[in-house]
Amino acid sequence: MECDFSGYVTKYNTPCTDGLKIMSDAFKHMDGKKVPLVWQHQHNSPENVLGYTVLEHRADGVYGRGFFNTTPMAVTTKTMLQHGDVESMSIHANRLVKRSKSDVQHGDIKEVSLVLAGANPGALIDFVAFSHGDEVEVLEDEAFIYTGLELEYMTTDEDSVEHAAKTNQGDTTVAPTATASDQGETVQDVFDTLSEKQKNVVYYLIGQAVDGADNAASQSDDDEDYIQHDDQEGQYVTRNVFEGDSMTGAQQGPTLSHDQLKSIMADAKKYGSFKEAFLEHADEYGITNIDFLFPDAKTITDSPTFISRRMEWVTSFLGGTTHTPFARIKSIQADITAAEARAKGYTKGARKVEEVIRLLKRVTTPTTVYKKQKLDRDDIIDITDLDVVAWLKAEMRLMLDEEVARAGLIGDGRLADDPDKIDETNIRPIYSEDPLYAIRHIVDFSTTTAEMVDEVVVAQAEYKGQGTPNFYATKATITSMLLLRDTLGRRLYGTKAELASAMGVKDCIAVDPMSGISRTDATAGLVKLVGIVVNPADYTFGADKGGAIGMFDDFDIDYNQQKYLIETRLSGALKEPYTAVVIEQKAAIAG
Length: 591
Hints:
- The chain is of the alpha+beta class.
- It has two domains: 5-208, no CATH class; 305-591, Major capsid protein gp5 (Major capsid protein gp5 fold, 2-Layer Sandwich).
- The protein is built from eleven helices and 28 strands.
- Strands 1, 2, 3, 4, 5, 6, 7, 8, 9 and 14 form a ten-stranded mixed sheet that branches. Strands 20, 21, 22, 23, 24 and 28 form a six-stranded mixed sheet that branches.
């Protein structure tokens, strides 16, 4: 069956305007294959399938014979070919094997398209069938120059064919072609005398003269590399190719076509980042160092934020404690709970017995708590975005306050032989206080969360602290209590205030460092801390005039370093008996 048209779908060893070069025999295995014929590589509608193309491998490229179907789109396109409106072909290929970034050595041609402008200069139609009734007239004896430029046909009186290669603008003649010169040679004859290297230079220069090249390459559905050789935006000469930096034809900068931007925007919607989508396609479109176009990232805060434990409880606890202007705290108690201390009835003639009062005395002496830092002076000078010294001092004060509050509530958690441990005889933790000062209430391991709320109330039976205390526990413990529900699935406590009211405390305060604390009790065995009920006003911190929190800095000339020290010398303890309650739970028995 006679084909409707034919021509090269791609030429080997020809630099294309999208930067690729199809190497010899890259599609040799496609010889004889039949692939769809498509309009402008548009795969989104069946109407764009115009027919099919039979491929033929040749030494200089892949030749294709096109056969139109009878759809309205195909009939219209066939008319355009016969009228000379369309002259370029293009391939869509995937599964590419590249020797380098630009040299394609192997691939599969999936379809051939008729395009308004092709990226491969040699992909031109050289035969179109014209129908006159039942006869077919074939154009013969024509010369074809594979330059990617439009051919103008002019018939002379002697019925010879003259070809003038022009730009798509139609106003600038590049060179006369195919006419007999004074020496009887055509341009094709002259071109054939060039060496392969010279031909490549000609191809490259012509390709550089065509601006707006559209490399519509993107990832296929199975993430395979593919090429699509068409310039959908048209080809126009916009500058002199000899005005580059050298004969290499240095470009003045890559451009993006409308279709390429559409591809980028599609990926941006898919992945949620325009910048990432742009960077992903940058190399495909010949754009290097594209990240220079994006603005530098900017911080949203004036200084680095601290990654720390939750500190809200620190301010609450320290702010509620009692402070004395002396560091040596002495507490004296008279025990009048014994039966002998009770008032007695008198029997006439009997001897009156004196009351015996047992006095208890405890002295708490101060200890030093400190934090030390240093900065190289060079860094202080070079860091101009923030006041790094002020930022560092704020961090030191924050961490010192947390350590003092932690030492007073539960202890610093360090082992007894750790040289950095805060002595618990100087700052006495409520958690490890003597039962005379902190009541210990131990519940069974089977106690549920709902029962634990009641146990907090029960534990306060002997509490003698001033005012209404707070309940200090981990965030997990407080949350589990808030999530308690009745048999109908309704929350028992809508807010933290309702929970606190149910437990008879002022507030429920989360303390991160309380997580995982346990001890071994002489009678109950291993018990874990559940919470502490205490009013901070019953805990006293004492510091002499010179022992209050102070910040010191010094410069080390030898090491060019600025050193900073924040420290305090203080003592801390509960001053009255039974002013705190430590609630603990027995550990589950293994097995």
